[in-house]
């Protein structure tokens, strides 16, 4: 699985730390870190919560188009 640089960039745009985002979506900071590193594939429900927290779409963060 590739690193999720889109997630890291979207989080940074809002000046949120991994812990801030984790608190917003009710997971641990380690979970957010693992998603960004590409070590963890989040559930669709978690993906949706992350997108809502960052005000982006699923396609913006998780679609690996060409």
UniProtKB/TrEMBL annotation:
Domain of life, source organism: Bacteria
Per UniProt, which keywords does this protein have?
DNA-binding
Q: Which Gene3D superfamilies match?
A: lambda repressor-like DNA-binding domains (1.10.260.40)
Q: Residue ranges of the HTH cro/C1-type domain?
A: 7-61
Does this entry carry the keyword DNA-binding? Answer: yes
Record keyword Hydrolase present: no
Give the matching PROSITE patterns: HTH_CROC1
Where are the bilayer-spanning segments?
none
Which molecular function term from Gene Ontology is one that the record holds? DNA binding
Protein name in the entry: Transcriptional regulator
Organism of provenance: Alkalibacterium kapii
């Amino acid at each position: 699985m590739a690193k999720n640089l889109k997630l890291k960039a979207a989080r940074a745009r809002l000046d949120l730390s991994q812990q801030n985002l984790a608190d917003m979506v009710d997971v641990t900071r380690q979970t957010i870190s693992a998603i960004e590193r590409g070590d963890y594939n989040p559930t669709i429900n978690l993906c949706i919560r992350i997108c809502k927290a960052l005000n982006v779409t699923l396609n913006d963060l998780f679609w690996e188009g060409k």
